[in-house]
Amino acid sequence: MDLGLKGKRALISGASDGIGLAAAELLAEEGVDVALVARRANVLKEGCDSIASKTGVKAVPLAADLSDKSVFDAVVNDAVDELGGLDILINNAGASSFGGFGDITDEQWVADINLKLFGFIRMTRAALPHLLKTGSGRIVNVAGNSGKQALEYHMPGAAANAAILNFSKSLSLQVGAQGVIINTVCPGPVRTARLVKQFAANARDWNCTPEEAEERFLAGLPLPYIPSARDIAYSIAFLASPRAAYLNGTTITNDGGITRAV
Which first-to-last residue range defines the signal peptide (predicted)? Predict the structure, then answer.
C-alpha cells in the first residue's frame, strides 16, 4: 500500500541502528527525505549513504549527543535547512540501564531519564514550530512496552517510557487541532544490541548463561520469537503517514501480545 508519504521530510533520532535506522530506511522507501540523528558520526554516514544509494532520496547524517540539552535547536535547524522543511519527527533515542534496583545508581537514573524522556521533550519543543507550519505534521514517539507493563530489570527506562506515554497524550490534546498529530509505538523486545544487554543482566541475576536467559525468555512469549527492528518500523511509518489521519494520542503496542493489559 502506498502510504502517501512521497516528498515528505522526516527527522529520526536514535537512527544509527535498530528501530531508528529501520524506520529511516522504510520512510525512505516511501519517498521521504530523511535526516538521521545519533552520536556515532561514522555509522550515521554509512547508514545515510546506504539509504540514498538504495532509494534515491536525500539522507542527511546529523551527529549529536542528545544527552546535551544545548544541541536540540541546532539539530532541528540543520535538518530543516538540509531538507527544506520538516513534516515528520520520530523520537527514538534513548538507552536504559538494566539490573536490579540495588545495582542502579542515582547517576544512572538521572542519565537514562535525561536522554529518553527529556530528549523527547526537547526535540519536540525544537521541532514543533516547523511541524505546525505544514498544517499536517506528525510526531511518532517510540517508548517501549515497559511504560505500560512494569519490567523488574528495566526500572529507569520503564519510568521514562511511562512518562512519554503521558507526555504524548497530553501534547496531542494541545496541538491536534492545529494540524500536528502525535502517536506512540510501544515495542517489546526487538533483536538489537540493547536486547543482548538485557539478557546479560538477566543471566547475572538468574545465575545462568546469556543464551540460557534468552531461551527462558522466549519460553514465556505468546509468540515465541523476537521480531526485527523493521517489524516495528512498519507501525512507525503508518502512524507518520496520511493513512493514519484520524489516529491522535493513540498508542500502538507492537509486542506480540506480551503486554497483558486490555
Answer: none
**229-239 vs 18-29: helix crossing angle, rounded to 10:** 50
Q: For 7-189+228-251, CATH number? A: 3.40.50.720
22-to-42, 62, 78, 108, 190 alpha-carbon distances in Å: 17, 17, 22, 27, 12
Which residues, other chains included, contact 179 with Cβ-Cβ below 8 Å and sequence gap of 6+? 132, 134, 135, 136, 137
Question: Closest by alpha carbon to 221, among 260, 195, 257, 185?
Answer: 257
For the stretch 152-206, pLDDT in tens is 778 999 999 999 999 999 999 999 999 999 999 999 989 887 788 878 888 998 9
